[in-house]
Design brief:
The strands form two sheets. This protein has a six-stranded parallel beta sheet with strand order 2-1-3-4-6-5, with helices on both faces. It is an alpha/beta fold. Strand 7, helix 8 and strand 8 form a beta-alpha-beta unit. Helix 1 packs across helix 2 and helix 3 runs parallel beside helix 4.
């Protein structure tokens, strides 16, 4: 197996791992360095590929997909400054608890720090705006490296959804397809066989834990609200999964008679759940400001 074949197989294993971990949508901004990963994504029957040339537009397109579906969409771009255009949407994803994956193709280490065009330091490119960062490096034929790639894909998907949904960054290095490198033929043949085995088995399955509010905390909160004359609850923005809290919030409102002010992105705007929307306008109204404050 040539170096080019190893790179294609490596990219294919990564995309297969992401697909089997729950990924369904890949938003591609085409470029040279990302070619192996784009081709691998198009070969995966579980994945839908969307072509959006402008990276900033692509990022907000993926953000909208993830907000609507509750599962991460993958942003895929070439190396250099391309990935920097994702930052505004990733900051929005972090603040709105929206799961988004980013896969930035990167130059090999020998092209770093030598003035190679479109080469920047992409390690932890997004800083604290992402929930996690994984540098998957260059393709390796070692069995441990192949299993680690499988595991990393599953970890990235899981981290984007739990415990706090948000963006996760994967950085993958690739040498030009026309540039070969010496490798042990027997070792690469064994790697190809292992890749087939791993793709058939699927990555480690990570099940999302269920977070439930403490009953003791709810009882204590209900008691304190019951003692109030003008109790008020405010629901801020939350991930799509926060919709599961509607029954608990409804029970709390019934027990306490509290008023619920809910943000448009709180996931608590539902039929049967009484609350007040657009409260930022309401609280600025003179009658409201002149009235007694919540206690």
């Amino acid at each position: 197996m040539s170096a080019l074949d190893l790179q294609s197989e490596w990219a294919g294993l990564l995309m297969d791992s992401l697909a089997k971990s729950g990924l369904r949508d890949v938003v591609v901004s085409p470029g040279s360095r990302s070619t192996p990963f784009v081709l691998a994504a198009t070969r995966q029957p579980e994945l839908r590929c969307w072509d959006v040339i402008d990276e900033r537009s692509a990022a907000f397109f993926a953000l909208g997909q993830a907000r609507a579906s509750g599962r991460p969409s993958l942003l895929l771009c070439t190396s250099g400054t391309a990935g920097a255009h994702y930052l505004p949407a990733l900051a929005e994803a972090a603040l709105s608890f929206t799961p988004v994956l980013v896969l930035t193709a990167d130059r090999p280490l020998e092209l770093q720090g030598c003035g190679a065009p479109q080469t920047v330091d992409q390690v932890k490119l997004y800083g604290d705006h992402v929930r996690g960062f994984f540098d998957v490096g260059l393709p390796e034929a070692l069995p441990a490296a192949l299993r680690a790639l499988r595991r990393t894909a599953a970890q990235a998907i899981h981290l984007s959804r739990w415990p706090t949904p948000g963006p996760v960054h994967l950085n993958a290095r690739a040498r030009k397809p026309l540039e070969s490198r010496p490798a042990a033929e027997e070792q690469e043949r064994e790697a190809a066989e292992l890749i087939r085995t791993l793709e058939g088995a699927g990555p480690p399955k990570a099940h999302l834990p269920e977070l439930l509010p403490s009953r003791e905390a709810l009882d204590r909160l209900a008691q304190r609200l019951a003692d109030a004359q003008r109790p008020l609850l405010i629901a801020g923005p939350g991930p799509l999964a926060q919709a599961d809290a509607r029954p608990a919030v409804e029970q709390l409102l019934r027990r306490t008679g509290a008023v619920l002010l809910r943000d448009a992105a709180s996931q608590l705007r539902a039929r049967g759940l009484q609350g007040i929307d657009a409260f930022d306008v309401l609280v600025e109204a003179p009658p409201c400001r002149a009235g007694p404050a919540p206690d």
